[in-house]
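Thread amino acids onto this structure.
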């Protein structure tokens, strides 16, 4: 990942490794999508009137 920054002409390379940052961003995105899909799935299974009452 650092080579990519150097190829783009970036002078100040971040002082931490970028590979774990990319992995963590992908993992957090996946967890967010799963959580959102789970809530959407639950919302489609309950009746509207029950959702309003609770």
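Threaded sequence (54 positions):
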């Amino acid at each position: 990942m650092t080579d990519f920054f150097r190829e783009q002409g970036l002078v100040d390379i971040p002082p931490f490794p970028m590979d774990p940052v990319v992995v963590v961003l992908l993992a957090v995105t996946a967890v967010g999508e799963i959580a959102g899909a789970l809530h959407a799935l639950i919302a489609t299974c309950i009746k509207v009137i029950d959702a309003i009452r609770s």
